[in-house]
Amino acid sequence: MSMPYYVAPEQVMKDRAEYAQKGIARGRALVATTYDQGIAIVAENPSRSLHKISEIYDRIAFAGVGKYSEFDALRRAGVQFADVRGYQYSREDVDARSLANAYAQMMAHTFTNDIKPLEVEILVVEVGTAAAEDQLFRITFDGVVLDEDHFSVIGGEAEPITDRLKESWQDGLSLGDALRTARAALAGADRTIESSALEVAVLSRANGRRAFRRIEADSLAELLGP
After folding, report:
1. Residue 8 CB contacts under 8 Å (≥ 6 apart), including other chains
2. How large is the average pLDDT for residues 103-128?
3. SS3 at position 166
4. Residue 113 CB contacts under 8 Å (≥ 6 apart), including other chains
5. How far apart are CA 19 and CA 113, in angstroms?
6. Of 2, 76, 164, 172, which sees the most CB atoms within 10 A?
7. Ranges 2-11, 18-27, 89-98, 204-213: which has the least confidence
8. Which residues is 32 bridged to in the sheet?
9. Rounded to 5 degrees, what angle do the CA atoms 162, 165, 168 make?
10. pLDDT in tens, 160-210
11. Three-class SS of residue 152?
């Protein structure tokens, strides 16, 4: 009688983590940063139809990197969660923290119980009525929630991009300055990213209840400058 093949639980978790990290690292990075009127999200994404950044609810946005089909399924689940919570209670009860916790539970369950982990990392951000109330939550592939200050980076080469942002980010940036800072951090010193290769959206306090707005084409080129 053959003995069943045994793998230590620690090794299983390690293998799953390495598998997910490799998949995420292959994706282009994404930056979310606060500015004087809200939060800007900048992704290196040449596709005009497969969006990495989306609106979830009135003042909440979602961004993901990694395997598109997986983070888009999470996006749709988040929209449904927000709609149901807003209908059952009130629109004010839909916030980024509760949504981030719901995502964390889903992603942790998949990582622990399914054979293949999710190859994604996501951001849930919410613009407040004042800058001190802005929230940025990063949720990793294994369901860990990180509450970020001022800016957050996910995707390939996140560590060097974060280091560049730490050197260049300043409080009270205008929208144009924030976008240029994010683009420079994504590109590094060795290359240039054209505006046509970027996907950009903002959550702006100036937009009223529906704070989400995409910035495209001519408007983006004008804000980024020469």
Report:
1. none
2. 95
3. helix
4. none
5. 15
6. 164
7. 2-11
8. 41, 152
9. 160
10. 999 999 999 999 999 999 999 999 999 988 888 999 999 999 999 988 889
11. strand
What would the two tokens of residue 106 be?
């889903």
Taking the CA atoms of the chain, what radius of gyration do you get in angstroms?
A: 18
* pTM for this model (two decimals): 0.92
Distance CA 18, CA 205 (A): 39
Q: What is the DSSP letter of 142?
A: T
Q: Which residue matches tokens 């957050």?
A: 152
The residue to which tokens 């951000």 are assigned:
125
Q: How many residues does the chain have?
A: 226
Distances in whole angstroms, Cα of residue 201 to Cα of each of 52, 60, 207: 10, 12, 12
The Cα 23–Cα 118 span in angstroms is: 9
Letter for the amino acid at 159? E
In 93-226 the beta strands, taken as DSSP E runs, fall at: 120-126, 135-139, 145-148, 151-154, 198-204, 212-215
Q: How far is the C-alpha of 165 from the C-alpha of 173, rounded, in Å?
A: 13
* String of DSSP letters for 27-96: SPPEEEEEETTEEEEEEE---SSS-SEEEEETTEEEEEEE-HHHHHHHHHHHHHHHHHHHHHS-GGG--H
Nearest-5° angle of CA 149, CA 151, CA 156? Answer: 130
